[in-house]
Design brief:
The chain has 4 helices and 8 strands. It has about 190 residues and is an alpha+beta fold.
Amino acid sequence: MTPYRLVARRIAAGDETAFPDLGEPLERRRASGAARIAAREALAELGGPADAALPRSPRRFAIWPEGFVGSLAHDEEIAVAVVARTRDVAALGVDAEPLPEDVAEIVLLPSERRACAADPVLSRAIFAAKEAVYKAINPLDGSPLEYEDIEIDLGAGLARLRDGRTLGCVIERGPPLIAIAFQLPGRA
């Protein structure tokens, strides 16, 4: 059993009411609201508060209720949330496709290019995984990770950081393709 809950939902009219109006365009508020609705569902599945506010931190990450960690992502159609209890997961990040085809090539390390030479979808999965790693680590300790600081090994289900830390990495094949990165408590 996975140590987290993943919830995905289609973005719909009215979802913007789940996110405060911070002067952002309606589409952005609607997507952010949909992600928070998904997060509240995941929180409730874990026994957490189904009405959590999930305000945005100054660095634009959701602030989770005590005892929980999570991450949000969305595109124009789908919003996703991944949530876990802090006793089970120390850091958690998520990212979702679709991603631009050509952007992935810019961020791949040579070992990653070799690993996905036969399957171009894997290059986009690696890109999404790197985004998920950033979303897991930056809120935890503020590390300003660059793409070259993260090596993804999809076969092993691992993300290795240049500083020696290792995270678990899971790809859920969609649509949409969803990447989840997590660090277990007491692991570096």
